[in-house]
Amino acid sequence: MNQPAQVILITDADHPTGKAMIRRFVEDGAHFLLNSLSDGTQIAAEIDMAKASRSKVIVKNVDLSAGANASELVLLAERELGALTVLIHNNDRYVPISVEAGSEASYREVMNTNAKSAFLCTQAAGKAMAAREAGNIIFVSSIHAEKPTGSSFAYSASKGAVKMLAKEAALELGRHGIRVNTIEAGLIEGDGERFRSPLTTLYRSYELKVPNARLGTAEDIANVAHFLASKEAGYVNGADIRLDGGFLLHYMDHKMKRPRSSDSP
Fold it and tell me: 16 vs 3, 84, 100, 189, CA distance in Å?
């Protein structure tokens, strides 16, 4: 017996992880409600791919940290696409900001985009899913929910807030058959520049601090999300999956896996 197609809401479809999610889930014939700050222009290729595979696609551009927008988006998905089965919250706003000199406006911007929107989307999706006693909520978060960046305390604080939101939601919504899990992603191309810090050398030669010296990709994240949304993950709830290739385990630079050309004879 064929399972009904999943209906997936992605909160930032323009982000590399959002694009990878579309490409991964379209293989299963999923339908999508995509929140896109570019009104779909940055994901035109993914939208065309989904439609060519007969997936239904709706694109919206709303501020999910404001009022009833999250609820309206969930209702739109349910009305036009069918029962919402998966919420993927992947908002990832980063602004360099220090504890000593950071502005309130920058702090609020990051917290609203990353954390407040997570709460509102979880509340809206949870209500819809609870009525059916089924659903999946997946947060694409960061290793900086646990490890300071040294460059943006607001970013770390927002990801820490999402981490505990997920725990509380897993406990509460789990009673209604809804699974809530977090992917703590780290170390993709460009992170060294993004998290450049005057306080820590964490990201110096960062690609070599992964035990196997390989950076992750958006596709790696999408594959884990695909698993978490599947029936094979039916007993996974309240989990944090650290997806950093072992980066946070690093502690001695002279033990890094360097390119063979620079190895000592």
Answer: 28, 22, 32, 11
Q: Which pTM does this prediction carry?
A: 0.92
155 assigned to active site: yes
Contacts for 5 with CB less than 8 Å, ≥ 6 apart: 28, 29, 30, 31, 55, 82
Of 107, 155, 203, 206, catalytic: 155
Whether 255 maps to a domain, the answer reads no
Parallel/antiparallel/unpaired status of strands 135-142 and 178-185: parallel
Which amino acid, 136?
N
Q: In the structure encoding, which two tokens stand for residue 165, read together?
A: 């939101």
Q: Is 84 part of a structural domain of the chain?
A: yes
Could you report the per-residue pLDDT of 68-99, keeping only the tens digit for each? 999 999 999 999 999 999 999 999 999 999 99
Residue 107's CB is within 10 A of a number of other CB atoms, namely 18
pLDDT tens digit sequence for 165-219: 999 999 999 999 999 999 999 988 878 788 888 888 888 888 888 888 889 999 9
CATH code, domain carrying 157: 3.40.50.720
